[in-house]
Amino acid sequence: MYYHLKAESVLIEGKARGAIYDFSSGRVYSINRGAVELLKACESSALEEIMDVNSVDGKRYLSFLDKLTTKGLGAIYNELPAGKRTCPIQPYQPTLEYIWLELTSTCNNRCLHCYSASSPHTAAGCMPHTRWLELITEARLAGAYGIQLIGGEPLLYPRWRELIIKAREENYELVEIFTNATLVDDDCIDFFKQHSVSIATTIYADNSAVHDRVTQHPGSFDKTMSAIQKILAKGLPLRIASIIMKANEQEAENIVKLLTDLGVEPVPPDVIRPTGRGDNLELLPQAYSKPAIKPPFFTDPETFGKAQHFHSCLAGRLAITSTGDVIPCIFARDQVCGNILNTSLAAILAGQPLTTCWQTTKDCISKCQDCEYRFACADCRPLAQGQDPKKSWQAAPADCSYNPYTGNWEDR
Ligand SMILES: C[S@@+](CC[C@H](N)C(=O)[O-])C[C@H]1O[C@@H](n2cnc3c(N)ncnc32)[C@H](O)[C@@H]1O
Ligand code: SF4
Ligand code: SF4
User: Fold this and answer.
1) For 210-223, what is the HEC assignment?
2) Where is the Radical SAM core domain (predicted)?
């Protein structure tokens, strides 16, 4: 008699424990070291060779295997299954999916936390307009289907409309503009509607006192809220982001309520990334944080296949700054993978720096590389890096208390 996990279940070892990833239910089951060793022994030997099935221990092992069978994770076989199991894991082919274009570093706000250190006095950048236009075509040819115009404040880039028209000509599926919305007028809204542009904006509170303290721009809350009302009245797709720092951490619930009242999807506020002007301990919230990393973890063949060789969030995306630097994400300011003013996008996509960034799997991350949840657990690299005292790109996320060397969650 042989015992085998089903083709839809995969055993992943950690240093102290293991996990069974079940693609049928999407669940990830934690198992102890003894169970890991038993399942590994079962891969090549009959149950009778591994244990005395009539002994007390043998009955305990069989009862454990019975439980796995009941959950649909494995089964008893009369002989060793021949050949390789056909597992449903889908290999991920890295191609460009999404690009951010930071049109300008100038902004009419001067937010306390701004990762691009934008302000009315920050230099706009040096990308020729023709290069932005070319890039929109190059990125589409390379496979990108989503594009976001961002900044700084993208509406301060004088020819932003031409870039939207170009993106539409190139048939991007998603064209989004990320704006503080203080400059959005009726004319802009008509243009967005005419060209099917999605809009993203940001609020930091449900009142002007706190919002304007974050933006350092008196009157900005009223302007942003007025634009939000007009955009919603015209039925345009709008998402509203919010970032929490010390100055507005009492506002998290008020923001969610405001979004609900507006009829906009109430996404939980995100936290500041310690980068750019945000790299300042004084700005960090005292109590508010992203939900800690902890079970239950979930899996599916696609995300598992991607996580084995690529970072779940970074792979497939890149941002281009107003000076032409290519970075893997708007928050990852120091991971420069080339400059688009002297290199083609195709060469940057094929180059080692970007490939290495995209391939930042959990196997590259200290602690995580020894954890059995590493192919089910997602993280934000720039957040982990920013929270690390040494600012290491390979730092483990600060918001995980799991110790894969003992198998214990240390905050429990
Ligand atoms: C840089 S802004 C550019 C678009 C536009 N000016 C705006 O503020 O909506 C894009 C988003 O990044 C957020 N952001 C800026 N600095 C950040 C940081 N250090 N950590 C997390 N989010 C940040 C802003 O709050 C905003 O939601
Ligand atoms: S977060 Fe946006 S609005 Fe604030 S300073 Fe930066 S670019 Fe400007
Ligand atoms: S953050 Fe790292 S150590 Fe924590 S659960 Fe995820 S993979 Fe494991």
Assistant:
1) HHHHHHCCCCHHHH
2) 93-311
Topology annotation, domain 98-290+315-358: TIM Barrel (3.20.20)
**How many A from CA of 295 to the centre of ligand 3?**
10
Cα of 227 to ligand 3 centre, how many Å?
A: 41
Domain assignments of the chain as residue spans, ordered by start? 2-77, 98-290+315-358
326-327 and 270-271 as β-strands: parallel, antiparallel, unpaired?
A: unpaired
Instruction: Return the ligand 3 atom nearest residue 297 CA.
Output: 5
Write down how long the chain is. 412
The Cα 28–Cα 9 span in angstroms is: 9
Per-residue pLDDT of the chain (412 residues; tens, 9 = 90+): 999 999 999 999 999 999 999 999 999 999 999 999 999 999 989 999 999 989 999 999 999 999 999 999 999 998 877 666 667 787 888 899 999 999 999 999 999 999 999 999 999 999 999 999 999 999 999 999 999 999 999 999 999 999 999 999 999 999 999 999 999 999 999 999 999 999 999 999 999 999 999 999 999 999 999 999 999 999 999 999 999 999 999 999 999 999 999 999 999 999 999 999 999 999 999 999 888 999 999 999 999 999 999 999 999 999 999 999 999 999 999 999 999 999 999 999 999 999 999 999 999 999 999 999 999 999 999 999 999 999 999 999 999 999 999 999 998 5
Q: How far does residue 360's CA lie from ligand 3's centre (Å)?
A: 14
Q: Which-ligand-closest: CA of 411? A: 3
